[in-house]
Amino acid sequence: MGGNRGPAAYADEIVTFGEIRAALGVAKSRAWTITRDRDFPAPWFVSADGQIRLWLRSDVEAWLDQHRPDWRG
User: Fold this and answer.
1) Half-sphere exposure of residue 16, counting CA atoms within 13 Å on the CB side?
2) How does pLDDT run across 37-55, given as a tens digit for each residue?
């Protein structure tokens, strides 16, 4: 399952699990559940051991806009 899911991306186009958790304002376990949900965007990158998952910022922000409209402020 490891490897890129799309074309190369710049660092500012990528978000980590920690950044997603902060945007959601939830505990680690709840963020884990949300990011595993089928409605949440698939990670752009998953390490071979599954410990590192990275998402495209645009995908995550679109999901947040739809599901958590007050997340921006």
Assistant:
1) 7
2) 999 999 999 999 999 999 9
**Cα–Cα distance for residue pair 36/33, rounded to 1 Å:** 5
Place of tokens 């965007």: 41
pTM of the model: 0.86
Angle (CA) 17 7 53, round 5°: 15
The Cα–Cα gap between 19 and 23 comes to 6
Check the CA dihedral 57-46-51-36 and report its sign: positive
CA atoms within 13 A on the CB side of 15: 20
**Position 41, amino acid:** P
